[in-house]
Design brief:
This protein has 197 residues and is mainly alpha-helical. It has nine helices and four strands. The strands form two sheets. The protein has a two-stranded antiparallel sheet with strand order 1-2.
Amino acid sequence: MFSESSFSEKSQQEEFIKKLTSIQTDIKLSKSLIYKGNKPNLGAYQSEYNQAAYHAVQAIEKSLKLIISSNGKTYDKNHRIAVLLCAVDDSCQQDFIDKHPFLWKNRKQLSLLNEARYDDAEVTKALNFVLLKEAQGLADEIETEFRSVTNLSKAQVAKIMSSIVPAEKNTVKFDLLSSKYYTKPSHRNKQKNYCKE
């Protein structure tokens, strides 16, 4: 899935771990909506099931995009799971679709679940558990492969993650308590100050 050259620089490893954390965050959000502790939340509202499905599909989509980008390839900026699956299978891992039949079989429906965040779908409890399982399995597979290629342990990955500071070039910082709006200093003169003290 990955080559050693994909992560030869520390910054490449950090970027990968940052994106993997975003994937795991979507999985945690999905899980928090359909579980209470370790037990299924059978009293969840339909909206919670829809949001859980959306976050699980986001984790799947981000996982596919991470595989593609970590192999030095580009992808169209869209939510079409089928296109992403083909890109992974064609350029990164020849048997990926064979190893993930659920994703391939349900590629069109998974893409449509991006609309679940607007409550334009009625996602069932059962489908949520399947989506969560698929998302977590794919994220685990990616992390295991990454650790195998980089020879990093789980503890080392966690340590790198805790040391990552957001890259200033793409970061917008908000101080909500004082209502100040901060951007990169080079952009301050180009933007209007929308929030004043």
